[in-house]
Write a structure and sequence with these properties.
Methane Monooxygenase Hydroxylase, Chain G, domain 1, mainly alpha, globular, three-stranded antiparallel sheet
Length: about 160
């Protein structure tokens, strides 16, 4: 399987799930920058970027890239990007230490992956649509994604 397809599916998974959770998307890119093979930049969550809901939503978004790879491409591993795993662990440690959950950080990570898996399954068609578009334009804005109908327009409300 071409590496670029895996990156496109991964980033599209992040983008579609982020939009479904109410984040506004600034950009999604499959251009490698030395630190990662692609990236998504989220601009805002309707609950405020420092809220527990936003942190939890971000954890789900971080897990969505790997879950999209696994579900759509049936990749052999579910490890995903090191940066995503590290950020997911950091957010879940924060939620645990701040007393926002009775679960420990490992259980929170499992729960985030499960929630991401459900959203990826539900929106796999949109993820594939975005990934195909990223083959033509390796960088897209949230407005361009909304024009495709792949993500909702930036209303600031979860779908």
């Amino acid at each position: 399987m071409p590496a670029d397809l895996r990156v496109r599916i991964h980033e599209a998974g992040h983008a579609v799930v982020a939009a479904r959770l109410g984040f506004q998307i600034a950009t999604v890119s499959t251009v490698a920058d030395g630190r990662s093979a692609g990236r998504i930049v989220l601009s805002q969550h309707p609950a405020g970027n420092k809220s527990t809901i936003a942190f939890w939503s971000k954890a789900i978004v971080l897990a969505a890239g790997t879950e999209a790879e696994w579900f759509i491409l049936r990749t052999a591993d579910r490890q995903g990007s090191v940066a995503d795993r590290e950020e997911l662990a950091r957010i879940c440690r924060h939620l645990e230490s701040a007393g926002h959950s009775r679960l420990d950080s490992h259980d929170l990570q499992r729960k985030a992956r499960g929630a991401a898996r459900q959203l990826v399954h539900r929106h796999a068609g949109r993820i594939v649509h975005v990934a195909h578009r990223l083959a033509e334009a390796s960088h897209m804005t949230g407005t361009e994604l909304a024009r495709l109908g792949a993500v909702p327009a930036a209303t600031g409300q979860p779908c």
